[in-house]
Amino acid sequence: MLDNEILHKVIRPGRYTGGEWNSVVNEWDSTPIKVALAYPDTYELGMSNMAVPILYEILNGEADVLAERVYAPWVDMESELRQRKIPLFSLESKRPLKDFDIIGFSLGYELCYTNVLNMLNLAEIPVLGSERDDSYPLIIAGGSCCLNPEPMADFIDAFIIGDGEEVVLELLDVYRGVKGRGKKELLKKLASVEGVYVPGFYDVQYDKDGPVKGIKSNIPEARPKIKRRLLEKLPPPPVRPVVPYIEVTHDRGAIEVMRGCSRGCRFCQAGMIYRPVRERPHEEVVKAAGEIISNCGYNEISLVSLNTSDYTRIDKLVTELAAHYPRLTLSLPSLRLDEFSVRLVESLPSRGRTGLTFAPEAGSERLRSIINKNISDASLLETAGKAFERGWTSLKLYFMVGLPTETEDDVRGIVSLVERVRSEGKKASGRRPMIRVSVATFVPKPHTPFQWSAQLDEASLRARQEILQQGLQRKGIRLSWHDPQTSLLEAVMARGDRRLGGVIKRAWELGCKFDAWSEHYHHDNWLQAFKESGLEPSFYANRERSPDEILPWGHIDAGVSGEFLKKEFQKAIAGEETPDCRDNKCNYCGLEETEICKSKV
Fold first, then answer.
1. Cβ–Cβ < 8 Å for 331, 352
2. Dist CA 368 CA 403 (whole Å)
3. Cβ-contact 357, 398 below 8 angstroms
4. Is 294 among the domain residues?
5. pLDDT tens digits for 455-501?
6. Cβ 167 vs Cβ 160: under 8 Å
7. How far apart are CA 256 and CA 259, in angstroms?
8. What is the pTM of this model?
9. At what angle do helices 523-533 and 500-509 cross, to 10 degrees?
10. Which of 348, 366, 399 is the C-terminal boundary of a domain?
């Protein structure tokens, strides 16, 4: 199936060979349940994803289950597969995907949706769920995008909503019990599992003006609300992950030290849908680091969370890890913008200091209060000054444009703030520092206080980018920004309804895939797909929504209540901040009754 006649014709053939260190190859014929874990992007990105190795270890730990991996083949490999009529296959056994019982897609980014269709088609599996009979695998999906599953409802048989570690085992139990009794019977049983959403058992009605009018289940087994699955305690981390033969995006070991964030940034979906905060004990992290070093040979490990600075006694953990493993390089992503973070990174061995990255997000204190990013200009400048005094010569700053209530003065505030940071660096070190400025476009996301907000139109976004381009044309400053057209598509898919299935399918038929890659994004094809489907992108992305409107994801209970989100939206408009509930009284976000949070009420 895979030979040198193909491999020498494609770039990075190591994407497709399999056989990596720690990969698991179980006996195919004697294993009853076969699962393919599919990541709808390149091998390099997929191998850097943390969800796949967690599920890979859990599933392969079941005596009657084998789990194998598959990633989206790059365009050169796709061409070879189609030309030679070779169906898409897994890495471990090289078996065609259509031979598996279950295919599970990880959906973490909306611009990967067309890749899901492309992978199914390459596997000779119908892309529409309605066209797949009992002879085809069950197609499931999990990940953050599944908190609004509707745009992909036509293609996915069942979605896992929330933490997948426990529910995936319950899904297997259901599968064992009904295997051989038909897909419809299987889906009915799955619909009764908490955290599983079967879109085929729900009907959506629309108002004549376009918004959703109602979402109702059409069988008794389907719950009116699908509640996000929530782990009360994080299970042990994977300590024997597959080690790639080629360089991948994050080429190091990784330990999730904490899941969830309580800071409450109002634009941040992850900060809402992964609540409440759950920390992994220090001793478990230290032990896992040693096992990863032994099992994989890594000399660098990343301590992963949404906000690593907030992990309890992170400084003590760093000290413990350095004492146990003196040759280990530690990576600390997602640090809070304060002097503590500077001291924390400074405590790392010098080989671990790769520069500092902070995210002020907005250029003015007024706008940072609105988004609940509680950082003053003075604090930011003081932190930058301390970093430069301690010898750092480069800093990366993340900002966002198009935030609710933003004015062009707020955008000019980014220019002013970067200049002041640059001046702090020159004053502290006597030389000009390197400041890298990355500017994203605000995308309103489901289950956030800004889910009702509009995204700015393309002309307004480009005007803001022009302000930054002109204002930051300085030596020592490097500016990068997101394409407004891809940000538009992201917003459409993030807040879309089930009708977008036709758009996605048509765009894929027109050649759309790898939409997150600028060289493969074809905006005109997407516009044609919208036009043929009778839908307008602006209806989904650029329209302010009423807090009383039924949202396409209204039947998905993410744990954070609609009442809390509305209250936060109103506080945002008023410029009021909400303190972190880990250090202050409970904010009653809807999760206060869980075992994890109830003691804080």
1. yes
2. 10
3. yes
4. yes
5. 999 999 999 999 999 999 988 899 999 999 999 999 999 999 999 99
6. yes
7. 7
8. 0.96
9. 130
10. 348
